[in-house]
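HOLO CASE FILE
Compound: magnesium ion
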Amino acid sequence: MAVYGQGREMRQILGPMSTLDPSRIPAHVAIIMDGNGRWARKRGLIRSLGHENGVDALRRIATRSAELGIRYLTVYAFSTENWQRPRAEVDALMGILVSALKKELKTLKDNNIRLNAIGDLDSLPKQCRKELEEVRSKTASHTHMTLTLALSYSAREELVRAARTLAEAAVAGTIAPADIDATLLRSALYSHPLPDPDLLIRTSGEYRISNYLLWQIAYAELYFSDKLWPDFTADDLDLALLDYQSRDRRFGLTQEQLNALS
Ligand code: IPE
Ligand code: IPE
Ligand code: MG
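Model generated. Tokens follow.
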């Protein structure tokens, strides 16, 4: 089914059968929040204004996700490759991150959301690390949903780092090379102990993964929206979830095997 960013109209077309099944809400949704720059350019604005409006979209989507009972929301906020953007844009993004963390603590509290972060966090400016730590500790006891920000994140780097950690443990004698299996490798990833995403959404009409959660999305359902991230609404999230609920996840088995299991 091709459903690209048509919000309410599409829901009307789908009719009453289109309501979300509360028993099949994905536990973990990951999002590549793309299109802030194009959103700004279309309006003749500087790119950083696109990023600021991207924060508003994240607030909407996190709030809707919590309302729907999604347990984990993991968003790509800044990739390792994004450090190569013009200095002014990187500085603006880091500034927006700090102010969003300060401002959105209330949203996290109101919705019982725990903040988490993955990536090479040591490479972030001091002020960002400080604010991140503060919001993480202030929301640590929240239980309804975990919002994970991928910051200075690269999936390849995450895997390289995991390989190095395991190699060091083998050299130190804490593990034997033969102990290394998928469970052990997973435990060395930034994302541990989050479960794998069930659904990966990318906005802005791009059909690529851009070095995001390469290990973790092995069996995720993929959904692409043409909407630019600052335009992405709660209705658009609902549409993505509806599409997800229309799919059969087979994990390599046959449909007959799955039918016998259910
Ligand atoms: C996504 O929007 C946000 C970040 C990568 C930080 P972009 O800034 O990539 O926006 P486009 O893709 O240039 O429109
Ligand atoms: C991916 O978007 C990273 C984030 C959304 C933070 P990019 O805009 O950096 O990805 P490419 O360059 O289009 O692949
Ligand atoms: Mg982009």
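CASE NOTES: The longest strand covers residues 145-153. The chain has a mean pLDDT of 94.
CLOSED: yes
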